[in-house]
Description:
Blueprint: H1 3-7, H2 24-35, E1 38-48, H3 53-67, E2 78-81, E3 86-92, H4 98-114, E4 121-129, E5 135-141, E6 146-150, H5 162-172
Antiparallel strand pairs: 1-3, 1-4, 2-3, 4-5, 5-6
InterPro entries: PspAB-like
Amino acid sequence: xxxxDILLGRTKPVTPDLxxxxxxxxxxxxxxxxxxxxxxxxxxxxxxxxEGAAFEQTHREVQALLDxxxxxxGPPVRLTQDxxxxxxxxxxxxxxxxxQLVNDLHAVNSSMEVNGxxxxxxxxxxxxRDDRGLALALVYLYKRGTFYPFAPLPGEAxxxxxxxxxxxxxxxxxxxxxxxxxxxxxxVWGAPGL
Length: 194
């Protein structure tokens, strides 16, 4: 960063740190002990939809890599598109396979990054539920290198449980790099991995 950048208030963008994803399994232990949420075995990577042969080839390689896992207990990895036009690569594992799910999410992000599609990556999430059936996602913001909790309330209206999100933030503050700017805690309504 140069002097002109400092004078104009420009900041250097945060470099994504995909290794932060590997903190999820230990954070899950804390989350279960403190709030009663356990992994669902579902997770997803969200990215801006890209057209073209290079992206299609990358997608096929990622899908083949993840589907080749002979120990996979859930259905194969699948690609879906949400109502907002974003693509999601969804992975299903058994609930006790959170480390393998994290490996899946890391592999998808890494493959897209290596093949030049890093700017299209938006977020990754891992799903959790409590004994009452309430859903919670721990969302990793690719461009910020941080996590935040997303807790949609059950029902048709798009409402979230802000109190639960703040409680989870406090609980996981030592386990995950939590996004400090609450304005960046974007809702991921209808996310396939949730």
